Amino acid sequence: MRALLQRVTKASVTVNSEVVGRIGKGLVALVGVAQGDTDADVDYLVDKVVNLRIFADEAGKFNLSLLDIGGEILIVSQFTLLADTRKGRRPSFIDAAPPEEAERLIDLFVGRVCSKGLKVATGRFREMMLVEIHNDGPVTIFLDSREARLKPGIGLTNNCAYK
């Protein structure tokens, strides 16, 4: 799974001229699901997203997480994060998970973030969305659960009790 995080002062997502999600200070998480991703990938990304220290403390240092500040999060499914652009000029999305599996894992991701007590807003799966992002900083961070699999000492485990 991949997530592109943007620290925001506010953000919203609109579908068919209707605002379906809106947040204040916090994060926008654009999330893509790859073929072969599992619940363990969800757990890894949830832990990273909610605990990543990218908010400033009183001294202006990146020492606070989304949980620390009681921030909000807008989660938007985005299969284009799995684009392969190595050949030609048209991206290939062959690495993206099939829609049914991607939707299951996105829903699981949303549920597990909700279980952390944060205010969560979402877009709508498989819909054309207009996402308005007021990037704060700008701060933009890319996460990939598969990178964790390659690093010694970092394992992906599924030990979350959320169902």
Tell me what the structure shows.
With 163 residues, the chain is of the alpha/beta class. The longest helix has 16 residues, at 99-114. The chain starts with a strand and ends in a 13-residue tail after the last helix. The model is unreliable at 157-163 (pLDDT under 50). Helix 1 (39-51) packs across helix 3. The strands form 2 sheets. Strands 1, 2, 3, 6, 7 and 8 form a 6-stranded mixed sheet that branches. Strands 4-5 form a two-stranded antiparallel sheet. It has a single domain (2-146), classed as D-tyrosyl-trna(Tyr) Deacylase, Chain: A (3-Layer(bba) Sandwich), CATH 3.50.80.10. It is 24% helix and 35% strand.
Number of helices: 4
Largest sheet: 6 strands, mixed
Q: What structural class should be given to the helix and strand makeup?
A: alpha/beta
Overall outline = globular
Helix content: 10-25%
- Report the mean per-residue pLDDT as an integer: 92
Assign the CATH superfamily: D-tyrosyl-tRNA(Tyr) deacylase
Assess the beta-strand content as a share of residues.
Answer: 25-35%
The quaternary organization reads as single chain
User: Tally of extended strands?
Assistant: 8
Gap from first CA to last CA: 19 Å
CATH architecture: 3-Layer(bba) Sandwich
Features:
163 residues; D-tyrosyl-trna(Tyr) Deacylase, Chain: A; 8 strands; disordered C terminus
